[in-house]
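During the second half of the funding period, the structural biology subgroup turned its attention to how the target accommodates small molecules. The most pressing case was coenzyme A, which had performed well in the primary screen but for which no bound structure existed. We therefore specified the complex as follows and requested a full 3D prediction, including the ligand pose.
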Amino acid sequence: MPQVSLEREGRVAVIVIDNPPVNALSPGIAEGVIDIFRAMEADSGIDAMVIIGAGRSFIAGADIRYFGKGAKRLGLGDRVSDLIDLGSKPVVAAIHGYALGGGLEYALACHYRIARSDARLGLPEVLIGAIPGGGGTQRLPRLIGPAAALDIILSGRHVPAVEAHSLGLVDALVEPQQDLRSAAVAFALGVAATRPLPCLRNRPVPAEPAALARLFSDAREGLARKAREQQVPRQCLLAVEAGCTLPFDEGLREEWRLFHEIESSTEARALRYAFFAEREAAKLPDMPAAGAVPGQDAAREVRSLAVIGAGTMGGGIAMSAADAGLQVRLYDATPEALVRGMDSIRRNYGISVERGKLTQAQSLERIARIGSAASLDELADCDAVVEAVFEDLDVKRQVFARLDAIMKPDALLLTNTSAIDVDLIASATARPHSVAGAHFFSPANVMKLLEIVRCDATSAATLKATVQLGRSLRKTCVVVRNGEGFLTSRSRTPLTTEAMILLEEGALPEQIDRVMTDFGYPMGPFAVSDLVGLDIGHAVRVARAKADPDFRKLPVPDRLVEMGRLGQKTGAGWYRYEAGRRTPLADPEMTALIGAMAAQLGTGGKSFTDAQILHRLLFSSVNECCHILQEGRIYRASDIDVAWLHGFGFPRFRGGLMFWADTLGAAAIAQQVSRWHAELGPRWAPAPLLLEAARTGLALREIKPMLQPMALDAVAND
Ligand code: COA
């Protein structure tokens, strides 16, 4: 039950908001604050007020669960943010943890703001498909200037309190070891007699009209370039513009109108869905209840991580762990490879310093956390080990047999394989319950996704600890059952295959890539293929063709590999590259080659609309995901969306693959897939679950195929 309470400290009223875990503004809270505020205004024993949050945060914002649901809200003029600054007594916001969205808007309506130096403040509505609707777009530009306000509102970033103080957003800072509440009460007493009260609604926006016009036209141009298909950032911009050009009350009305206009749009729903899908993905519903298995509830916190393999992947994993404060030990089979790996880590940190992302001191601190190990034995006492060696089953089995012999008994044994059967790796050890897959995405220190692969024998404790490790590395974790291609590779392979087949039919790489970037991807599949290297996909195809005589060959990319066009690393792939540059340039030689091959195959000459290309690529993956769901390989359909958002750059404002599919409807997709099945062959056979969803109207994103419950005997063995 959300609570707002009043505590008196002499002549200061302290209004405490207590709604765990993050004091989101659930229904009832605003009314509670207003009741106390009005009573204190009328109370002659009170000279000033403080608003503070109980627990770990000030206020993390409006309660997003109620957005778009038609929940009853206080109207314009009756809201907390409309009333506080019109009061006759000073009100001080005392901020710790997070002051976000509606929380910062409460604070902006207060006359003063003091914050703990480790707090974070922001208006992140743009990230969850809303615009700040409680006066944030009107007051922030008046307080810190329109350019800084626009940056905070359009990026949605969490501003550290120290920066907020230098911007003038916060009046005073309190060190973490000091008591925020007493500091706020003292501050309130100090300003109790100050009049007139500083009130942002009465303050002009500090900017000349010409500078304002330039700022907004530049911002509009920026959005046209970077967020062409998105409405929410545009609405935010319009609201700030209203804040800077209209009288306060008119601007407030415009902000409120824009807020309501966007709230139920598909884009807003997609972004809210993505927020909750990410949080859901971290939940493991089939774990034994606390206390069910004696001795299994203690957290196995990982403080030290061993990484085997100092190549691009291993180096990225080591950096990711060092960034999160873990002690790392890096090993490679040859001393030269280890030296090369350490050099490359130092170089990468150097680039972060050059780009102003880290200070020199921070980068040195992180590098110092990564030690090199001359032998595997030196890894023995680490809490967890991630193997990132060459993708070869025999090599990996040898590594795991060795790890089994040396690692301490409760260490997590993780493999970063992207394709190999993790059960086969685990069976090289006498403790398969301690083994799981930890599939990072390249570059591992940047990409947010961690695909955690659960083997048949993986114990609950191992799985929980691996998810915990992923979270401490600030990754978004998705748990999948072991199986070919896991979730990520298996669900994306149909898309890349279809892209290659479209070339045989008359499309060109630059055309397909343009369709996908127009859709919102940062890069199209051919530009990605050039980045990753065409040899990677080729090796997978060779292995699959060996295992499956009916495997659909892809002659066009195979021909490029034969020609040595492996992508950026060879200066040419699907595109050509100028020396030292990474910009893909359309290559007439490729156009001629693809045309000639299509003619030779007798399949070319077709032309495609953008929608046909988009649907051919994405429907093939939606169909595969329905098979994955039917086989119970993941906990829930929304995990697919989380994986695609964080592993493949699927545009967030479209929610994710399955959310997007639902906007078209399973019935329309099933119909098209069935048509392509008749026209293009068995690879398009519609998944039974897709047909069922089409028949019943079931939303694809809501399908919940639980993984099999954890075997308790495996847990007990752990
Ligand atoms: N409304 C409703 N629920 C919220 C919420 C909000 N504004 N902010 C957080 N929560 C919930 C989360 O869904 C999660 O619930 P769960 O435990 O049932 O999954 C819980 O609070 C904890 O959130 P989590 O994100 O796991 O905690 P964190 O410490 O990693 O991050 C925040 C805390 C505040 C940074 C993060 O939750 C966040 O960004 N929240 C949204 C802030 C926002 O956009 N505010 C503007 C809204 S107008």
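Two results from this model are relevant to the next phase. Residues 610-630 form the longest helix (21 residues). The pocket of coenzyme A is lined by residues 21-22, 24, 60-65, 98, 100-102, 124-125, 128, 130, 279 (CB under 6 Å).
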